[in-house]
Amino acid sequence: MFHPLSIFVGLRYVRARSHKFFVSFITWVSLAGVCVGVAALIVILSVMNGFESELRDSLLALSAHARVVARDASSAPPSVAQWQSTEGVIRGVSGVVGVAPYIEIQALAMRQTERFPVVLRGIEPAAEGSVTQVASTLTHGSLADLRPGSDNVIVGSIVAERLGLAPGDRLQLLILTVGADGAPEPKLRELTVAGTFEADSAESDSTLVLMGIEDVRALESAGRSGEGLRVRFRDVMAAPALADVLRKLMPSSLTVIDWTQDHASYFRAIRIEKTMMSLILLLIVAVAAFNLVAMLVMVVTDKRTDIAILRTFGTSPRRVLGIFLTQGLVIGWLGVVLGVALGLAVALNVSTIVPVLQSTFGFEIFDPTVYYNTAIPSEVHAANVAIIALAAFLMTALATVYPAVRAARTAPAEALRYE
Q: 228 with 77: CB under 8 angstroms?
């Protein structure tokens, strides 16, 4: 803990207007650099957090938090009774809010001369509300249209656009089934488009076709290897832990795959981008810290006479060290505090600031003709802000050590020789 004299003199140096214009200029540049670096880091990470949350929501709009599937796809699939028994076990686990069976089949959608590869997913309409958010993504039609025996389908918005489909149109699906002799057997099925959905996910909107699970099962042995259970948890972020619980309850023939495994590549890429962006933006704070070093070195040189006088009055080198540590810490930490305040102010109001900038300067950050999502989301995480502030505090604190040590080693006689 510094002696009050060190704090008093250090604060006087901070408040004093130096007759050295360049020293004063570097001081303000250092403070502004720390402030801008910290603010930029908070805003950028908050925007990336927002994009990560939007990506997660769009991916999970038509996906479950976890899937229970056969461990070995080449072996005989479990029977319907076995799936129902497993479903009952899963429903008894705390944290599970929905379970429903599904079947997925690779198919080729055809209409007139157009051909488009799709994934035909058989769902249980009555259970989908508790398992996914299908109903909230529908733009036309209803899940009730997927009643057994209707041969109705609901298609993704991009599939509908590329094939020119509208509710009531006929759609042909070419499905590869397995014949009685085990040989591949193509099967053509004509279906009715009952509606469309838009999940704000190009992967789902451009490949997915929904159909009642009983109708899909009626396609003989088609897609049995893609059969399983879709599970929804109360807390999506607890999916990995709850998936581990479910794995212990499953028979050896079944396994559990949670959403972090299904979409691991997406979120790994985001984590890498966030890490690299943080390191790059921390360089702004590092440059400001170097400016802080240069400024304090010049202040020490400018105050050599003051240091010598203090030493002749009996001030110890430790107190001189404290004076310049105080000055550097006040300037650096003031920049960090201002940067945190500015960063939070911008990050919490991105949705208001961006439209104003776009309308004022007449440009669009994300052109809707190019990008799927055009809004810029922001999600502030307290842990990120704390880590950024702590890192900036440490960098600015380290920047004050060398100039302060140099000041403490100033010899009074040498400093006063030519005064």
A: no
Model pLDDT for residues 391-407, shown as the tens digit of each residue? 888 888 888 888 878 77
| 223 and 270 inside one domain | no
Residue 119 lies in a domain: yes
Q: Distance between CA 162 and CA 207 in Å, rounded? A: 11
Task: Provide the pLDDT for residue 333.
Answer: 85
pLDDT at 21: 54
Residues 90, 229 contacting (CB under 8 angstroms): yes
* DSSP string for residues in 30-79: HHHHHHHHHHHHHHHHHHHHHHHHHHHHHHHHSS-SEEEEES-TTSPPPP
Closest CA to 192 of 137, 150, 223, 159: 150
Q: Does pLDDT of 2 surpass 50?
A: no
* Same domain? 123 vs 220: yes
Residue-wise burial string across 244-256, b where 16 or more C-beta atoms lie within 10 A, e elsewhere: eebeeeeeeebbb
